[in-house]
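ok so dumb question maybe but i'm new to this and my supervisor (M.) told me to 'just get the structure for Dihydroorotase, multifunctional complex type domain protein' and walked off. so i did the thing. is this what she meant?? sequence i used:
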Amino acid sequence: MKRTLIQNATIVNEGRSVRGSVVIEGEKIAEVLEKGQKPAIPCEETINANGCYLIPGVIDDHVHFRDPGLTHKADISTESRAAAAGGVTSIMDMPNTNPQTTTLDALNAKFDLLAEKCSVNYSCYFGATNNNYTEFDKLDKNRVCGIKLFMGSSTGNMLVDKMNSLLNIFNGTDLLIAAHCENHETIKKNTEKYVKEYIEKYPHQYYHVHHETLPMGYHAKIRSIAACYESSELAVRLARIADARLHILHISTARELSLFDNDIPLEEKRITAEACVSHLLFDSSDYPELGARIKCNPSIKTKTNRDALRQAVNSNLIDVIATDHAPHLLKEKEGGPLKAMSGMPMIQFSLVSMLELVNEGIFTIEKVVEKMCHAPAQIYNIHNRGFIRPGYQADLVLVRPDALWTVSADQILSKCGWSPLEGRTFEWKVEKTFANGHLLYTDGQVDETYRGQEIYFER
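this is what came out, is it supposed to look like this??
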């Protein structure tokens, strides 16, 4: 098997940053070398990584690649190439597609699509409905990353809103339950309240209030802090009663952080939390400039909430940083909070965005690697990925600091063709991405012939 030496890098792994080298042999990491150690046997290829940081490939546990059925805006091929360009080597795809991944047949068809089209490593969720919990026992726990539960309505309308159904779901599986938590009734009441308020204030705009007229800032009022907390609190309560394994997705409020624990090691936690890149980057003061481009569910909230999430990453109340990568065409993002589609494409620039926060002193690079690489592997019990260890799959990323570049439309690989980060200048750059030892991305190009591997879960 071919041996490749990546030498003279700063290796960031398991809380340490050390100067060293890594030997790739075939698909796996053969050696991790420090302090001038030499490979056991010569290597056929040497990559000089002087000035670069070598990290494990990012594992994004929360993406919407829109395949099947919504491929006019994104598909597995385009979005997995964007992932590779962003240093993401493994993804877990969500079930709100067409058809929805809520039956065994749809699940098997999704796996077939991923095997055929995905450039990076992959798994997908099985979507919960109000009545399909009897299918949970038929799932292959080594293949399926978890059960996706929408406790708030979002794109795809997979809302589970019956208490009996929620009880059956939480008591019906020992798989991880990944929950979107927003209280539907609170959102409905808020919508009625703020539409009425706006009509009373601007009566001449009544006929347009459900379209462009209502300012985008109302999105955070409609999908409010209370809506998030009420739903998250219920999910935590149900999980504790059932002793279920719960992972709450895209936490967006300071108030929700009180529901989580940072006093026990990650491997002992039964309830974990995810923050998304968008909620760590943006706040409600960005609505006037970016408008619907940053409209997502849960909503982008105030700077106070954003800063609390950043602190929670450092204190380990937040366990994972993911993207909720959710592309839409720009024409689908037109209009106000009651019309524009929710979601944004983030996967290609997620790692460099978090590394920019390292430059700002918000996070350390070790913390970014912990939350984007190690923690997803630990929470989902992923076999031999997420760390730089001998015998592990060689999912690796070389990133270079002090490499100024600006996001432009021609660099965007997502099919939707836009990013809320267009025009933003970064000082970090992904130079090379390896998946299973294969050089998948280098010199600005993705190897479109390569296909990733299915992720295996140890359960």
